[in-house]
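# nightly structure sweep
# worker-07 picked up a monomer target from the shared queue
# config: single-sequence mode, recycle default, output format = structure tokens
# input follows
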Amino acid sequence: IDVRVTFFDGKGNVVGDSTVEKKDEDVKDVLSISIPIDNKEINISKLRLSVDSNNIDDLNKKFMKYLVISIFAGLIVAFLIGLRYIEHASDPYKELIEATKNISHGNYGEKVSLQQDDELGVLASSFNDMSVKLDDTIKKLQESNTKLKATLTSVVDGLIALDNNFNLILFNPAAEKIFGIEGQKIMGKNILDVFLEDKTYKI
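# output follows
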């Protein structure tokens, strides 16, 4: 901004001007401020600062321009930071969902590694405990099932076991010999459907 500085003596006469080529009447639209000077050693009693109003308008326009640019830049930065925060905040939930899917696919004992002191950390700890207990229970059931199957398979008498829907869940080797049917081919089928087949029905 071009600022005009003018010095006046005690009688109001101009004793100095930073823009000597201009006179007061040459500048019609100015903003000025006078500052009194209390100094007896110099012959100056007042200081006047003058600014062309056109310069003020240009300054306001530039200020608004840079203000708008700064606002938009701030919004973009805030948006990017928000996206980054949301992505980071959703990672624990994604890990929990992935672990749940793995368990549903038979990967018992799946754990999540969330070391947090908030509610999400408590949930992760409970999930890990549940996963470990579920894995132990499944293993015990599999062991019991294996022992039971081995026992029933070794029985010399023919054994047939059905579920609540009368579907075959056990057809031991002795039963295979008696009926002449391979147990693997009829396992899971309804007992009525099996014995109504031509070959089996004749037997």
